[in-house]
Write a structure and sequence with these properties.
614 residues; alpha+beta; Aldehyde Ferredoxin Oxidoreductase,  A, domain 1; Aldehyde Ferredoxin Oxidoreductase Protein, subunit A, domain 2; Aldehyde Ferredoxin Oxidoreductase Protein, subunit A, domain 3; 3 domains; four-stranded mixed β-sheet
Amino acid sequence: MSVYAGKYLRIDLSNRTWQEETISEADVQQWLLGSGYAAHLFHQEMDPDLAPLHPNASIYIFNGLLVGTFAPTASRTSFCGRSPLTGIWNESNVGHHWGAELRFAGYDGMVITGASETPVYLFINGLTGDIEFRDASHLWGKDWFEAGDAIIAETDPKAQVAGIGTAGENLVKMAGVPVGPSHYVRIAGRGGMGAILGSKKLKGIAVRGKKRPDYPDRKRFLATVKEQNKYIKENSTGMSLLGTAGGFQATEEYGDLALKNWRLGTWPRAAELTGAVLYEKHLVRHTHCFSCPIGCGKEVEAPEGPYKTPRGEGVEYETMAGFYGNVLNENMEAGMLANSMCNNMGLDTISTSSTIAFAMEAYEKGLITDEDTGGLALTFGDPDVVLELVRQIAAREGIGDLLAEGSRAAAQKLGGGAEDFAVHSKGMEVAYHDPRGFVSMAVNYATANRGGCHLEALSYWNGYGLTLPDLGYPEIVPRLKSNPAAAKMAYDFQNYFSVYNPLGLCKFIAKGKVGPERLAEIVNSAMGWDWRPEDFIRMGEKLFQLKRLINNRFGVSRQDDILPKRLLKDPRPDGSAAGNLPDLDLMLPVYYELRGWDDEGSPRPERLQALNLA
């Protein structure tokens, strides 16, 4: 076996058939793997009129190019297709050990179409070469902690497993794909890919393998990995100790933290809920995804009390921002339990918490009534209400049935000005980094291919002190100034980070100061290539433009490259970003010119020609 497997599975659940497809070296040179190759296949095969949950709609699940190798953080898998939440392109990326095990089974990914009449799970057995369709009727209706553990018990104790909880079964538009056993679950959360699996009656996918990658020059690659791991560890000590939760208090200080559905500017309580406090009380152990030198994962447990939380993966920053700050919940253990429930039921914590905050404001304004909620008062700061709404959303019960559609659809149904405070872009709830505090993120959120996604640019990292000289950012760009430099930073960071999912690498190594030059060293030593750093930037732009072409076919245009009123017209009232608003009218034309898009938001033919996308 080479570095990558060179083949993927096409699985038809309607007929319970499968076949292998090859991936040529030329294809890899053109698209890489992961979400890059998935976007290429999707663009070839897409039917813009096919609804995301139609049986004939496909989900494209692909490892990044280096997954399963020794490369730092080579663990990332992308679940791709048309989002049930947004109706446009979506890639939901997750790290764990599942992708590496799929590579060890001899595959780079799979394309799944059709729908089973009865619940089923797949067992991809690389030890025997069998692809099994197994009955999952006894698992349907069970949440993921129980179902995932059961699938492992029924297949192989060393298998890795991914699948859905009850939210996916109930076609909740923000349902994700939990990966791993009950005590160590990561989740491909954003965009509702779990609902696609639910529509296909596919409860889970277990994989087991024994093959290992081979390298053109193993000695060179191992030497590179050793040096890069040392460098990354030295620059990631904070992430290793406290994970993303360690930055919770700093985001409040920078005017970055969403508060009370993005209405407040400061919240002193943040200092008492940060990762240092949480892990001092509740840490069980540190966890690592496959081949990761950082170890940002944290298992936690609250064994007693009113918000008793089972041992499981800890609360990440985005989840803390949503289930503490944005709903003004001051109870640490209640936030832990909300996180555990989302992992178990299979919910995206960002969209779920944001939609709950939206519902609380709608209740304040009388757009949601006690009659709608069955007497449940949707009051900010009440942890029991938050937990009950998480349950109702996953079950599509009561008001949860409306909220399960996401904040955009709920606002459209409620009317009465609700769309002014539904904080989303293109239907995806905006991640918890405020563009009023980091104006480059306004450009990113408005143009990111999957909607309100922070991960497509991560340019706010620069405002926190991350410099990447080889990307053209040796210094800090003023974070509150709307100017051409902020627009260019969104463009540059999008291009750079667009290669990470296709490569299968975690973007946190960039937080460890890995820029294009070090990225090139890692990939070239693994693959035997001689790509230059600028080749990876160009590939990132190419893949970003391909996904824009997909979205153009779904009807996305200039009029969709916007932000909600709350983030463009309503300034934070106090704190370090008080009074600041991003000027999209100033920055977006600069971005469009850099991208080579016309006035309608479509890539110009000459730019496509230059990127071999004509």
